Amino acid sequence: QVQLVESGGGLVQPGGSLRLSCVVSGFTLDGYAMGWFRQAPGKEREAVSYISSGGGITHYGDSVEGRFTISRDTAKNTVYLQMDSLKPEDTAVYYCARRAPGSGYWATRGGYDYWGQGTQVTVSS
Questions:
Q1: pLDDT at position 103, please?
Q2: Cα–Cα separations (whole angstroms), residue 109 to 37, 60, 76, 100, 123
Q3: Are 50 and 33 a contacting pair, CB within 8 Å?
């Protein structure tokens, strides 16, 4: 069955870096676009980044553009989110998700059909 498992979260100081990983099983990354979302306490889940099924197209939310980088390794069935220059407002639970084919705008939460359990990222001094 389809599974997505995130890891790599933790506590980091402002200005620091973390790399999140999302290992997938039950499907191949070549066939699906993938996304990263995050949800802070009391806030809506927001789109952070997207990578196309071919890996050649990426998108980022305005708040992370220039600081975060999405990538993937198809041999390892893994999607990554490199997060640099972290800010306290980046604190949230981060989720990876599989995009259903033909789902329209990349940042629409409803266009994703499978989700991981999430990994906590806390940015604090």
A1: 81
A2: 8, 14, 25, 11, 24
A3: yes
Q: Are 67 and 103 in contact (CB under 8 A)?
A: no
Residue 99, phi then psi, degrees to nearest 5: -85, 130
Residue 50 CB-half CA count within 13 A: 22
**CA torsion 75→12→92→100, rounded to 10°?**
-10
> What pLDDT sits at residue 57?
96
pLDDT higher than 90, residue 123 = yes
Residue 118 confidence class, pLDDT cut points 50, 70, 90: very high
CA distance 116 to 7: 10
Residue 102 binned pLDDT confidence (cut-offs 50, 70, 90): confident
116 with 96: CB under 8 angstroms? Answer: yes
